[in-house]
Write a structure and sequence with these properties.
Helices cover about 35% and strands about 20% of the residues. It has about 190 residues and is of the alpha/beta class. A 5-stranded mixed β-sheet has the order 4-3-5-2-6, with helices on both faces. Strand 3, helix 5 and strand 4 form a beta-alpha-beta unit.
């Protein structure tokens, strides 16, 4: 779910309904979503980079909200840190803040970073897919990467993050001009 997850949380918590909105969420690829947005077949998109590229290419779109991600959680299906010995941990970058945090976490358990196999997978979506497929044993990801109880272990690593932005709300100038009330309600739902 990743960059879509915040939208599902807003839906599940009833934030859209609180604003009087009837929102239908569905997942499509970045290109398809941006093309549908630009051709007025979609009201909002969550993809920041394609939205910006469309704007640079002359499309009349606006980024109306940016949603950051904080990749400071370690997830696994083991019951203890010691169970990670010899296992693969996927991170977005090595070294980075979360690598240092993992090293400190291991030290607290009498281990060190050489006791695990750090794997760099820059895209969080790809890291999560690798984790879910069993290709890796633990993953560093955002606080919204997994549903509650979807993994056995969830450990907060650090308040500092070097992670990029996760998602955005992108819409067209036309939609903003024709439906400013909906735009305001939608962004309020996500705030």
């Amino acid at each position: 779910l990743n960059e879509f997850f915040v939208f599902y949380v807003a839906e599940q918590k009833g934030f859209f309904k609180e604003e009087g909105l009837n929102v239908t969420l569905f997942e499509v690829g970045q290109t398809a979503a941006t093309n549908a947005l630009v051709s007025n077949n979609l009201d909002f998109s969550s993809f920041l980079a394609p939205g910006l590229m469309a704007k640079i290419s002359g499309a009349e779109v606006k980024v109306i909200m940016v949603i950051g991600k904080n990749e400071n959680f370690l997830y696994s299906n083991f019951s203890s840190i010691k169970d990670l010995k010899g296992k693969k941990i996927a991170n977005g970058c090595v070294p980075c803040t979360s690598t240092i945090s993992i090293s400190n976490l291991l030290k607290n358990e009498g281990m060190n970073i050489s006791d695990v196999r750090m794997v760099t997978i820059t895209d969080m979506n790809d890291r999560i897919k690798a984790f879910k497929s069993g290709a890796i044993d633990a993953v560093v990801a955002s606080s919204l990467a997994f549903k509650p109880n979807e993994t056995s272990m969830r450990i907060f690593l650090s308040k500092n993050s070097t992670a990029p932005l996760a998602a955005a709300i992108v819409t067209t100038d036309k939609f903003i001009n024709e439906h400013p009330d909906i735009v305001m309600k939608f962004t309020t739902s996500m705030a």
